[in-house]
Amino acid sequence: MWLFAGSSPHRPLLRPFDSIFSQSSQSIPSRLFFRTGCLAHWGGSWRSSRQLLLLLDILPARVPSPAYCMMAARGIDDAWLPSSLEAARITSLPSTAYYLPNFISEEEERLILDRIAAAPRPRWKQLTHRRLQTWPSDLVQNKLLDAPLPSWLETPVVSRLLSLPLSDDGQGDGVRHIFAESPHQRPNHVLINEYPPGIGIMPHKDGAAYWPVVCTVSLGASLCLNLYRSKEDGALDPEPAWRIIQEPRSLLITTDTLYTDYLHGISDIKEDLDLSANTIVNWPLLRDAEAFASGRNPRQTRTSLTYRDVLKVSKVGAKLGLFNKR
């Protein structure tokens, strides 16, 4: 559901809490203020987002974290989307990255995991310690055979990616989304990776086959993603430059030089350690930072969906009618 800004008594005006705090700090209980993260002007007074949702009788199972101070209260079950990606920016990184902790709901997560598990055995590619699926197909010489993604990978993920504007500037009637400048203006390839406890992936770059936007949806469990620099001599600096926690049902988007200049990887460990606001760059955006208050995250099986736009697409698959089964 959308709650639009406006002057009508039936269309509440939503504003970021930092601007409201500077203007109305005397009238805002700090406990309520920081817990809801968003206030709305309704009926002549400022109300919290939770109060507003109660008024409209659409209160979801979870109230969004303070990171969602800019949200336009678009809730889908227990999924929450901000009004724009700018509200989800990881500000302590040198280039553009976004983190949305509640991108899909628990029910949507379950349904996607069920579809992954139900895939025929030939869909799985077994590696030494983990396995993966590619949809609609593997790349052949950095080209993708033209074919649609299955409907369960399109909805809800792709539809939400394309509905989220980059900013709240309000320019134009169309939505300038994260794939607006990519060749196909949408992701056309999904890599599904299953990571058992203790298994990760070595630091790497995704390469030149893709547009430099990577959207990763995490399912099942949390883990810590490491970002690495290269030294002046080209060798990898073994110490992560930054660390990002990816919670289940979250979306992480990396773009620009984070894609082209830095490597990313997941350590082969059974427990993520030293987790805190000082060591995790997306800590203020987490859905449940208290879950990591001990500084530890015992690993469980985590599945990732990586959405990208492959630059070169061959029409051979479409002509032959390949990969059209959903």
Automatic annotation (TrEMBL):
PROSITE patterns in UniProt: FE2OG_OXY (PS51471)
Gene3D superfamilies listed in its UniProt record: Alpha-ketoglutarate-dependent dioxygenase AlkB-like (2.60.120.590)
Keyword Heme included in the entry's annotation: no
Domain of life the protein comes from: Eukaryota
Pfam families named among the record's database cross-references: 2OG-FeII_Oxy_2
MF terms (GO), sorted A to Z: dioxygenase activity; metal ion binding
UniProt keyword terms in alphabetical order: Dioxygenase, Iron, Metal-binding, Nucleus, Oxidoreductase
Main location: nucleus
Localisation per UniProt entry: Nucleus
Assigned GO CC terms: nucleus
Entry annotated with the keyword Nucleus: yes
Domain Fe2OG dioxygenase: 186-311
PANTHER family linked to this entry: ALPHA-KETOGLUTARATE-DEPENDENT DIOXYGENASE ALKB HOMOLOG 6
Similarity comment text for this entry: Belongs to the alkB family.
Protein name per Swiss-Prot or TrEMBL: Alkylated DNA repair protein alkB like 6
Organism: Trichoderma simmonsii
